Amino acid sequence: MNKPKLARDILIIRSRKTSNPKKAPQEEANGSPKHRKVRLSLCCKKGMRKSGSRETVVQHGPEDKEKVDSFRKFVFCDNSLMVGKEPGDHTLLRFLRMRNYDMVKAKEMFLNYLHWWDEFGVDEVCKDFKFDEYKEVKRYYPHGFHGVDKYGRPIYIERIGMVDIHQLFQATTIDRFVKYHVSEQEKTLNLRYPACSLAANKFIASTTSILDVKDVGMSHFSKQAKEMFKKIQKIDSSYYPETLHRLFIINAGPGFKLLWAAIKRFIENRTLVKIKVLGKDYLSDLLEDIDPSNLPKFFGGNCTCGGGGCYDDLCLLSDKGPWNDPEIIDALKVKAAEAAEMAESKDVMTMPVQTQATDPLLVLNKIDALINDANAKMQTMEAALQDAKLVLHGLVQHVDDLKKMVLVTNITP
């Protein structure tokens, strides 16, 4: 009987470690662009439905593939954009879906994303930014990832009603929190989704979110809070579109429901159908999508992450999920290294002329190739000249023989 894909991956990793420990997969550097595009597959753990297929299941069909291919050509028709690694199909598909497959609008949105990426310095944030106030911020703004839903998607939780705005901005600043938020978004795209895909043995590229609005009041909408949430909302909607699978808004009181009735008119139907606004009787709805083992006890689940108490900080501090499983991390590193090698070989073949000309290593390689080609041609010419010399030598010898024959003939009486 064939082993599931995860088991095969883990056996391969273990055999590599056992047979040749010196050649263990090299760890990818934090924020390395070479490994940004890994989208991969691991066993079904408790609380996840087992996939019927052992191969990765991609959530879009041939028609989407055709649209993505056309969009890719449309976006990168200008060679000046061909720098670094090209985005994966699903990244382009997210921007297409966000603009209802209007390629002109989707391209404009995608180019704005590329500009923001450089201007914000996302690579540098992911590599160098240290959020030392992490635990303190979590205390005054309870939020975080915790487990996966029954399909295998990561679960994100925010307890807005427990936010202490004054203490939060004593612990951090708006700019630092926004950088932290971007680094978490990148971690979700580049680690959480790939790890969940490996764990569920299917393609995962969206999140199930729970927003607890219990006791939310006007104190939660100070000037600083509005500024911070406005920046975060712009970043999420403009640069990380189409990553929400389902949003449960729970503990919504009469005041919030009135507010929701007013604001939902400004939300697109595509997003609106993903949102459920629930009161205090929310548990049955959550349990349809989430196993109790992955639902914190403060929401009616079984998980305490080994702790408890009125603050319940351990669950939201734990960052519990497949992305912390050592075997999954090892499998991702192997696949990331393989993907990087393939991408590098592809880049050398497809890099534009102007990019090649500005890369000293590529210029030297090109010169070496030209020299080798010239040497080969010279050797061919030398061989041809040698052949010509032999032919001429033969002709000279033949003429000499003819001269001798004529001389003998003239001498004979």
From TrEMBL:
Residues 364-391 form a coiled coil. GO terms for biological process: protein transport. Residues 1-36 are annotated as: Disordered. InterPro entries: CRAL-TRIO_dom, CRAL-TRIO_dom_sf, CRAL/TRIO_N_dom, CRAL/TRIO_N_dom_sf, PI/PC_transfer. It holds the Pfam family CRAL_TRIO. The keyword Metal-binding does not apply. The keyword Transport applies. PROSITE patterns: CRAL_TRIO (PS50191). It is a peripheral membrane protein. Keywords: Coiled coil, Golgi apparatus, Protein transport, Transport. Its main location: membrane. Residues 133-307 form the CRAL-TRIO domain. It is found in: Cell membrane; Golgi apparatus membrane. GO terms for cellular component: Golgi membrane; plasma membrane. Transmembrane segments: none annotated. Belongs to the SFH family. This is CRAL-TRIO domain-containing protein. The lineage of its organism: Eukaryota, Viridiplantae, Streptophyta, Embryophyta, Tracheophyta.
